[in-house]
């Protein structure tokens, strides 16, 4: 058994199991020991599923010994955000409103991943009901950023990201409604894949906004993301081998994406762009006015749906919620039904313009977030700081959600900064191939 296993990619761990260099039972025990003993364990894991993990690891070992592995991730331990239903295990979505909620069955994506042999380590902390990109949660726990433990980790998949970044899981599964996979991935120097809404099942996933909710992995490599996507879907792994950036056309989104950007995220992005150019990518900078128009619809579209889903539960016990999150939900009550419907009609028209604009490019690129992870204590004590940072955190990622895009974020090499690639709906395979080539250029 080796501590280096804790920081290997999920794919490399799978190859180690395949060659019998790694025992999946020993690997799972190593991760469980690490998770129990880590100084931030209680701020990363809401609860471990030790019995399940050991049973799944033992089954994976039998298959490995018999030469009957189900795939590369068979026997690899991963974590799950605490909004994926897990049979017999509390699933509370980071909220006291759901305290004691224990589902009878697994979410469909967990069923798929388990059938493929992935080992379920446990459930990770998150922003309350997934309605914040910061990862600040004074109700349950606030996960620390791997690069600054006094800062938030990003949300809402905060524990999913930090379980990987601190070496407490080989990969994490999260959800993304406005950037909740990509922000914590970027702030913790990971790869995060935002899938197209409707592509990956959300059956058995605690909802926030059904028309925007998506499921995706947070991991150490693009290869991991490809295998995890296949595991979540129970499908075929994208072929990302032999890809070159030479001649690929990329569009830097100028509209809004660089407004109020801090020096570090800008420097990380520009450095990544130079490496993409050096590898042969053709890069153009372009405005897309429809993006600003779409972002202006955010308040009209997200909060009303979220409050519509959760209104009765929230209004029955509002005092147990973090006031900032409560206020954000209740802001949805200020939007009329006609305005909501009109907003969606307008967004659908803007999506047509956007998809026509980007059709000639392999991807659109922009900084994943215009800010670095904010200080957790200051967020709790300085309301103006909270509002400013909360609005900026998800500003760039939300472009992908509003436009219905698939997206992937990669670390730039500068701590807590990411570069995001956005593509047309259902372009995950293309983005993974592009991501693999970009990853090689960055390394």
Task: Tell me briefly what this model is.
It comes from Litoreibacter meonggei. InterPro entries: Amidase, Amidase_CS, Amidase_dom, AS_sf. The protein is an alpha/beta fold and 443 residues long.
Structural features, described:
- The chain folds into two domains: 3-233, Amidase signature (AS) domain (Amidase signature (AS) enzymes, Alpha-Beta Complex), CATH 3.90.1300; 249-297 and 323-442, Amidase signature (AS) domain (Amidase signature (AS) enzymes, Alpha-Beta Complex).
- It has 17 helices and 13 strands.
- It has helices spanning 10-18, 24-37, 41-44, 50-65, 108-115, 158-165, 182-187, 222-233, 263-278, 289-295, 298-316, 323-330, 337-358, 376-381, 383-393, 397-402, 428-442, and strands at residues 45-48, 77-81, 119-124, 144-145, 148-152, 172-176, 191-194, 214-219, 249-253, 282-286, 363-367, 406-411, 418-423.
- The protein has an eleven-stranded mixed beta sheet, sandwiched between helices. Strands 4-5 form a two-stranded antiparallel sheet.
- Helix 8 packs antiparallel against helix 17 (428-442).
- The relative contact order is 0.13.
CATH superfamily of the largest domain: Amidase signature (AS) domain
* Sheet with most strands: 11 strands, mixed
Spatial order of the strands forming the largest sheet: 1-3-2-6-8-7-12-13-11-9-10
Proportion in β-strands: 5-15%
N→C terminal distance:
28 Å
Poorly predicted regions are none
Mean pLDDT rating: 98
Rg, please?
20 Å
Class from secondary-structure proportions? alpha/beta
The dominant shape is globular
Number of helices: 17
Question: And the CATH topology of the largest domain?
Answer: Amidase signature (AS) enzymes
What is the correct CATH architecture of the largest domain? Alpha-Beta Complex
Number of strands: 13
InterPro entries: Amidase, Amidase_CS, Amidase_dom, AS_sf
Keywords: Transferase
Protein name: Aspartyl-tRNA(Asn)/glutamyl-tRNA(Gln) amidotransferase subunit A
Organism: Litoreibacter meonggei
